[in-house]
């Protein structure tokens, strides 16, 4: 589905199926293609407002007795949606840019980190292409910093960072980052590809035709 009719289709489908936003279909497609979230997964959703990805993440965990958890962080206060979510979902109101990694790790089960990190963070679009792209890269790099630790940004092959500075993504874990298409976005490939088993780009079908959104999907953190 693409073009003018696509947004209307996904908007109507979201309403029909009880999702709080059409963006649910982006994660549904990612999950269908890559199967990142499994029963028992611990999921961190950065930029979780309005909650559609929380819904899909919780659904992907399966029944409540499968275990797992979903933690959403956003600068806005986000109420956990009543549909498709259960007691495994919680939200935190905080600015991810300034949130220390040890506080993020403390939100994970037994403070051992997360098996899946989803970053759907996006800047308030100004319409100035270069400015918006730069802000998008900044948010994306913050997600990488949280997931992998500062050493990953300094040197892709440096594994000597201390446990206090290490990222909150578990070995074998997966990372998804939303970006706005730009030349600088390719920097994520340079940084992340050596650290993951597989890294690829995806433009979900539910993306509006006028949008430059693209998702960087990293599978299987080496460690």
Automatic annotation (TrEMBL):
List, alphabetically, the PANTHER family matched.
Answer: RIBOSOMAL RNA METHYLTRANSFERASE, RRNA METHYLTRANSFERASE 2, MITOCHONDRIAL
Q: Where is the Ribosomal RNA methyltransferase FtsJ domain?
A: 19-220
**Pfam families reported for this sequence:** FtsJ
The entry's keywords = Methyltransferase, rRNA processing, S-adenosyl-L-methionine, Transferase
The protein's name? rRNA methyltransferase 2, mitochondrial
| Gene Ontology MF term list | rRNA (uridine-2'-O-)-methyltransferase activity
Is Phosphoprotein there in the keyword field? no
Q: Where is the active site?
A: 178
InterPro entries from the UniProt entry? RNA_methyltr_RlmE, RNA_MeTrfase_FtsJ_dom, rRNA-MeTfrase_E, SAM-dependent_MTases_sf
Recorded family membership: Belongs to the class I-like SAM-binding methyltransferase superfamily. RNA methyltransferase RlmE family.
Query: Which parts pass through the membrane?
Result: none
